[in-house]
Write a structure and sequence with these properties.
The complex is a heterodimer of chains A (about 425) and B (about 240). By secondary structure, chain A is mainly α. Chain A folds into 2 domains: about 100 residues; about 220 residues, MetI-like (MetI-like fold, Orthogonal Bundle), CATH 1.10.3720. Chain A has 16 helices and 1 strand. Chain A is globular and about 85 Å long. Chain A starts with 13 loop residues before the first helix and ends in a 5-residue tail after the last helix. The relative contact order of chain A is 0.07. In chain B, helix 3 packs parallel to helix 5 and helix 5 packs parallel to helix 6. Chain B starts with a strand and ends with a helix. The chains are: A mainly alpha (about 425), B alpha/beta (about 240).
């Protein structure tokens, strides 16, 4: 590397070197940007292959000139420490920067500049960009599925009611706080079920009956996720405790349960629940397909929850059990007041993980004919009037799912921060 | 001579194939203070953990306050509520404040009204001189303060017997004194105490009897003065010469 040595700065000349270096990097960036956005090749005078490598070489030289152990300049030190530690990292930095710059104009023009959103049929989409008209026209279907348009207010009202009920816990009086867990585990799901049953299903109070087959879209995603989340957590807790029980019967039942559900794929479980399960039921016994699917997913995810919670239980020191026992607490008091509050706090990240996976697993209910958001997309994609817009649909769905999941993970971070106490 | 409050007869205990306690016989009368000492691994912690059945014994009888401890003992919680215990690692509940640590068991086990429990807890915390820390969390306290809180927590159950499992072994030398002071004043209040400790100064000051254990057996059991003045067995002499 003899040739490069003259480019090495020291503390005395770092100022000049860093100015020259940053000019070189800037030139290389300008070259790539002008190439990507304006389609002008600034280095047209160079022979073919060198044109491509030119900005890279220039950038590397610039970064190399700026590299120094310690300069005293905060920005420069930060740069050197994080993205410019050696030639290889400098190369990676430049490559990533250049690729982003290269990709940006195309995606921008496809998604926004050349995109169409006006009109209400496929004919409006004549440009080369994305056809957001498709999303606009199908928006209600994506949100509510095949649910009749004139009844959409019923779904909206039901959701607002359920969300409002969820906040009741925050406003409970001090002397009712001890029933909080009872409320969220038993009362709340029951009320939510009744609200959804009477409002969305209808059939009484003068509301027209809408069968669950017509439900769909994002609202169905929410309904399935909501009930599965709220039921799988307490169930998982029971099996986690069961697996650690001293009573052999309970212990082995829990182990069998967990290992069984963890061992089968969700898609087969869903298939079983809708195809096989009704065969074993008596003729006159009817259980709705949606209910069966919710039960299936709940049982499935409960096994995962159980293992996550068991991890938390196992990480508590034995002294906590000893101390609780020595104060005369029995099994339930010890777990409710001492063990579970600590263990659950520890497993918030793991539980959030499981819950996110659950939400993203809901599209699988498509195999039994229930079309939630991704399912609706698959239906819309094959509509003869709207062929060829799968890309727009999937981008839309990924954005929606990302927003839901990001909100959930943010919430879990908040919970973690809220319940953080020093050990 | 009154009836013993703790009576252990021919007790044996195994961990797997390894016999940790061999033929233990011990009687403790009410209001007596017993110090148990001995090298590590001699089974002294296991012995006192057996007294409130945190460990199960396989042979022999343990009778605490007239109740025999065995697999058939149904309301072991009731007996444990009568027997307070302080641990080497404090074992405070880290998710609860100092005050809540102390009121949890009285409220939920003894069904004491919340207000009464809080008054009792503050009273006990005052006795160990940490009532000004009542609203802090265990993680914010020093080791000595945590151990004193653990003592207060055990006392809030108003136990008849207090067990101490090496209460000062995890503490800095400076903090040992404050914990020992709390224990001395408790002893002077007339509590029945069994203390596993290496603090021979404490033993000389408050103990009625000292028990020396080695290899799962009670090697020597004597009145405090007698124990330190002329120990009988060679093993005890060796131990004392090393520790004093």
């Amino acid at each position: 590397m003899q040739t490069f040595n003259f480019l090495k700065p020291n503390r005395d000349n770092i100022k000049n070197y860093s100015i020259i270096g940053s000019i070189l990097v800037l030139v290389s960036l300008i070259d790539v940007i002008s190439n990507a956005f304006l389609k002008i090749n600034l280095t047209f005078f160079l022979p073919g292959s060198l044109t491509y490598l030119f900005p890279l070489i220039l950038g590397l030289m610039g970064l190399n000139m700026m590299r120094i152990d310690y300069s005293g300049n905060k920005t420069l030190d930060l740069l050197n420490k994080n993205i410019n530690t050696n030639n290889f990292n400098a190369l990676l930095t430049l490559l990533i920067l250049f690729s982003v710059i290269k990709v940006l104009p195309q995606s921008l023009s496809w998604m926004i500049l050349d995109a169409t959103i006006s009109g209400d049929s496929k004919d409006a989409c004549t440009g080369t960009g994305a056809c957001w008209t498709y999303i606009k026209v199908w928006f209600r279907r994506f949100m509510y599925g095949m649910y009749p348009n004139e009844f959409h207010w019923r779904i909206n009202t039901a959701f607002i009611l359920v969300i409002a009920l969820g906040f009741v816990g925050y406003f409970m009086k001090e002397n009712l706080k001890k029933y909080l867990a009872l409320y969220y585990v038993i009362i709340y799901p029951v009320i939510a079920y009744l609200v959804i049953y009477y409002l969305i299903s209808g059939g009484s109070f003068g509301l027209q009956w809408v069968e669950t087959g017509a439900w769909g879209g994002l609202s169905l995603t929410f309904i399935v996720s909501f009930f599965c989340l709220i039921f799988c957590f307490p169930l998982g807790m029971i099996f986690a405790l069961g697996r650690r029980s001293n009573l052999p019967a309970i212990k082995y039942i829990s182990i069998c349960y967990i290992e069984f559900w963890r061992g089968v794929p969700l898609i087969t479980v869903l298939f079983m629940s809708s195809v096989m399960f009704p065969m074993f039921l008596p003729e006159d016994f009817f259980m709705d397909k949606l209910v069966r699917v919710i039960i299936a997913i709940t049982l499935f995810e409960a096994a995962y929850c159980a293992e996550v919670i068991r991890g938390g239980l196992q990480s508590l020191p034995r002294g906590q059990y000893d101390a609780a026992k020595s104060l005369g607490m029995g099994y339930w008091k010890m777990h409710i007041f001492v063990i579970l509050p600590q263990a659950l706090k520890l497993v918030i990240p793991g539980i959030a993980n499981t819950f996110l996976a659950l939400v993203k697993d809901t599209p699988l209910i498509f195999v039994v004919g229930l079309a939630e958001l991704a399912g609706m997309l698959a239906l819309a994609k094959t509509n003869p009037k709207w062929l060829g817009f799968a890309m727009e649909g999937y981008i839309f769905a990924s954005i929606v799912f990302w927003i839901i999941c990001y909100a959930m993970s943010k919430y879990s971070y908040n919970l973690e921060a809220k319940y953080k106490t020093e050990r | 001579m009154s009836d013993p409050i703790i009576k252990i007869q021919n007790m044996n205990k195994w961990f797997g194939d390894f016999q940790v306690l061999k033929n233990i016989n011990l009687e403790v009368e009410a209001n007596k203070k017993i110090v148990v000492c001995g090298p590590s691994g001699s089974g002294k912690s296991t012995l006192i953990r057996c007294i409130n059945r945190l460990e199960e014994h396989q042979e022999g009888d343990i009778i605490v306050d007239g109740n025999e401890l065995s697999e058939k003992t149904k309301d072991i919680e009731k007996i444990r509520a009568e027997v307070g215990m302080v641990f080497q690692q404090f074992n405070l509940f880290p998710h609860l404040s100092i005050l809540d640590n102390c009121t949890l068991a009285p409220i939920w086990v003894k069904k004491m009204p919340k207000k009464e429990a809080q008054e009792l807890a503050l009273d006990q915390l005052k006795k160990v001189q940490i009532d000004d820390q009542a609203n802090k969390f265990p993680g914010q306290l020093s080791g000595g303060q945590q151990q004193r809180c653990a003592i207060a927590r055990a006392l809030c159950m108003q136990p008849k017997i207090m067990l101490f499992d090496e209460p000062t072994s995890a503490l800095d030398p400076e903090m040992i004194k404050e914990v020992l002071d709390a224990m001395v004043s408790l002893a002077k209040g007339g509590m029945t105490m069994i203390v596993v400790t290496h603090e021979m100064g404490f033993a000389k000051e408050v103990a009625d009897e000292v028990i020396f254990m080695d290899e799962g057996m009670i090697v020597e059991k004597a009145e405090t003065k007698e124990f330190f003045a002329n120990p009988k067995s060679d093993r005890t002499k060796l131990f004392l010469s090393q520790i004093l």
